[in-house]
Amino acid sequence: NKMVDYGTDQLLLDIADYVVGYEIKSRDAVKTARYAVLDAMACSMLSLNFPECAKLLGPVVPGATVTHGAHVPGTDHDVDPVTAAHNFSTCVRWLDYNDTWLASEWVHPSDVVGAIVPLAEYLTRVRLARALPPLTMKDVIVAVIKAYEVCGVLALENSLNQIGVDHSLMTRVAVASVCTRMLGGGRREVCDAASQAFADGAGLRCFRHYPNNGTRKGWAAGDACARGVWIALTTMRGEMGMRLVLSAPVWGFNDVFHRRQELSVRRDFGEYVMENTLFKVAFPCESHCVTAVEAAFR
């Protein structure tokens, strides 16, 4: 019996078309992306001074080693790219000092840097071992801009916090999509990876609020990035996706997690998010608090 093709959710197709086919042309986006990578790296370095963060780093099983892995910046850890994504993104996010994007949902786009940089190192080490040219920082910058865009555009019109679930889903979708492309995937593979990221659903955000607020807030982004890289690697082994993961009645994302409404994306994917991201220059706090803190100091 042949499978009936009911089509593919349009949002998956739009993400895939953008990640695979869009050419980055904005000089402002490229310039800001360079700052974003440096800012994320600096945030991660500062986080290493805090034992509650540092204890989460390193291989899942103590002493485990890999042939071609990736470093966790500022440490001696050389781990697989999934663990490296968890570790690096956790460090970037730990102090709430990395950049932010304020829309219907508030997200921190530079969480994705913690996934993209280790994967680029892993791919470069594999390529060099095969006498192939390494990836360049241009490859990293392009991937970062596109991951920012996917994450930020999803956040523009869709407020997950209003229904009690966590925005890290958007980070996971962006990382899975862009990292699949970095691994050599085409439109079909990027669609499949994005669908897997959506199929994971959206977790509770109770750890961000009283009475359950705690340190999970610091590693939730690392968890999302690690999962995104894992999905990308698994997709490139040939794992199938779910083409109607969003719109399937009863069981799809929209019905289960989004109050039976479609996710709204009214802006075409481009370079908008990177060009307009907000850096926390003065104080490590949520952006809506910065003005109050600055006023208090004056």
Description:
The chain has 298 residues and is an all-alpha fold. Helix content is 53%, strand content 3%. It contains twelve helices and four strands. The chain has helices at residues 10-21, 27-47, 51-54, 81-93, 113-129, 137-157, 168-182, 187-199, 216-235, 253-257, 272-276, 287-297, and strands at residues 70-71, 78-79, 101-102, 106-107. The strands form two sheets. The protein has a two-stranded antiparallel sheet with strand order 1-2. Strands 3-4 form a two-stranded antiparallel sheet. The termini are far apart.
N→C terminal distance: 73 Å
Structural class: mainly alpha
Counted beta strands: 4
Q: Please bin the fraction of helical residues.
A: 40-55%
Mean pLDDT: 94
| Sheet with most strands | 2 strands, antiparallel
Q: Beta-strand percentage?
A: under 5%
Number of helices: 12
Q: Which strand order spans the largest sheet, edge to edge or round the barrel? A: 1-2
Q: Any low-confidence stretches, pLDDT <50, length ≥5? A: none
Coarse morphology = globular
Cα radius of gyration in angstroms = 19 Å
Order of helices and strands: HHHEEHEEHHHHHHHH
